[in-house]
Amino acid sequence: MVGNLKKIKVELGGDNLHLAVAKSDSIDCLKRFRKRSEPTWMFLAGGQLLNVVFGADAPRLTRTIEQELRNEELVKKGEKERPKRLPHELTTPEQEVATAQEKLFQERRAREAEAVAANHLARREARAKRLEAYFSDICPALMTPHAQKNLRKVAEVLEQHGVIVADKCPWVLGKDGAKRLALEDPEFGEEHVVATLAERPALILLLKRAPEKEGCVIELTRRALYGDGLTDEEKTGKKFPADDLRADNIPGLFVPADRHQRAAALDLLFPKMVGAVVEPPPTFEPPHIAMMFGAWQRRSVLEAAEAPHVQKRILRYGFFADTNIEEPKLLAKNIVKYEERPDKDYCETMVVMIAVGVCEPALAAPEDIPPPGAPAELLALGPLYVSTDAVAGEEECKKFFPPGYSVPEVKHRPKGKKKKKKRAKEDTVESTTEAPPAEASEAEANGEADSVAEDEEETNGDGEENGESDEAQAVDKATSPPPA
């Protein structure tokens, strides 16, 4: 454009046209142009932003310069006014693009939120169904510290509705337990309530439906303590224990409202009882995306991944034959196995599974919640592909890293062959002094025993050389995430 600018300045612009090169990295009002590779042309007059042109379209840029020069002549004559727009403000086309991008961003965030909620509900439903097989007639409950003195009153009300207190135990929930309880009932999420349960012992109750009583134990308990399921007329003039035991804005009782809350409360309040008959809740992976790099970038990727805030976000990685996302072909699970490959191709890729959130944000510390999107350190390396959002990333990572990907592979090694027993050779030379028959038999027996012992030692030695222990066999270094 230098030649065109000189020509326009001589023929049309004169003193009205000046060119300056500005680096957006060091100018705050131009920060919206950072990390963009396309040329950007800004037209300014009188401190106001007139127009912005993106790209290297010389004819279009020339026409824009000519038009803005004519507009400036009209402004000087008083026939036209300059637009009131500061350099950091967006032009109309920029605003339209920014609005469209923000709308797309919000749609993606809403889609991710819906997926997270659906996965959370599916996990709770699976856990509730698993525990119902053993605890269908049981309902856990909790009495806060100030309400424990009213246990007899609560038990009498429960007995009238066919629910008995099968067990009770004082227990300090701790800060983590109080937060987990707050996930089930927002009333227990207040700071003063969390502090109370974290420091003072609460009374956990195991409620059971009486054998002669029919109905759901949760519904019976909630009807007795909260009045749930009763009409307004039936509630008139009645005072329920849940209302009486509330003091200083702290609820006195916690009773699960549904089967999902019951399962969560059983895992929290009675872990030993549940663990005796049911496996513990499985661990789930946080929301994640897939980032694909060329395999030749492997050193740079692993070096960037050594940063503490990036390393804890890397869940898995692996090397693949090409950029095929639908049917990936695995080559190696870690850098060591990949370097052992004799032949390498520039088509080969490295895929990294990156966490973009946590499973339970309410339970995580603020510093442990990663920012949305991929880490800037990895984006700076120019990845070949990045998942559009966590929903697409989850589906893509299932193809790259199927179930069992990180399970160590057991290497079976052949066992050492046992050596045959060596028979003692008969002496052909006659001895001048013959040993007595008893002594000879003992010597033969000892010699044979020594031979067998030596053979066993040799066999054991071979076994130790050829085959390692079971623990050593179960170790496989071809796993992820990468080493620190």
Task: Kindly list the characteristics that best describe this protein.
five-stranded antiparallel beta sheet; Alpha-Beta Plaits; alpha+beta; flat
How would you classify the helix and strand content by structural class?
A: alpha+beta
Helix content: 40-55%
CATH second-level architecture of the largest domain: 2-Layer Sandwich
Radius of gyration: 38 Å
H/E element sequence: HEEHHEHEHHEHHHEHHEHHEEHEHEHHH
Instruction: Record the strand order, biggest sheet.
Output: 9-8-10-7-11
So, the CATH homologous superfamily of the largest domain?
Answer: Nucleoside diphosphate kinase-like domain
Strand content: 5-15%
Task: Report the major sheet.
Answer: 5 strands, antiparallel
Question: Could you explain how this protein is built, in words?
Answer:
The chain folds into four domains: 2-89, no CATH class; 118-275, Alpha-Beta Plaits (2-Layer Sandwich), CATH 3.30.70.141; 288-400, no CATH class; 414-423 and 443-467, no CATH class. 42% of the residues lie in helices and 13% in strands. The chain has 18 helices and eleven strands. The protein has helices at residues 2-13, 58-76, 92-135, 151-160, 174-184, 191-199, 217-225, 232-235, 241-244, 259-269, 271-275, 298-304, 308-311, 335-339, 376-379, 390-400, 437-466, 470-473, and strands at 40-45, 48-54, 138-143, 163-171, 202-209, 253-254, 288-294, 314-320, 330-332, 349-355, 385-386. A five-stranded antiparallel beta sheet has the order 9-8-10-7-11. A four-stranded antiparallel beta sheet has the order 4-5-3-6, sandwiched between helices. Helix 3 crosses helix 10 (259-269), helix 5 packs across helix 6 and helix 5 runs antiparallel to helix 10 (259-269). The relative contact order is 0.08. Mean pLDDT is 83; it is low at 425-481.
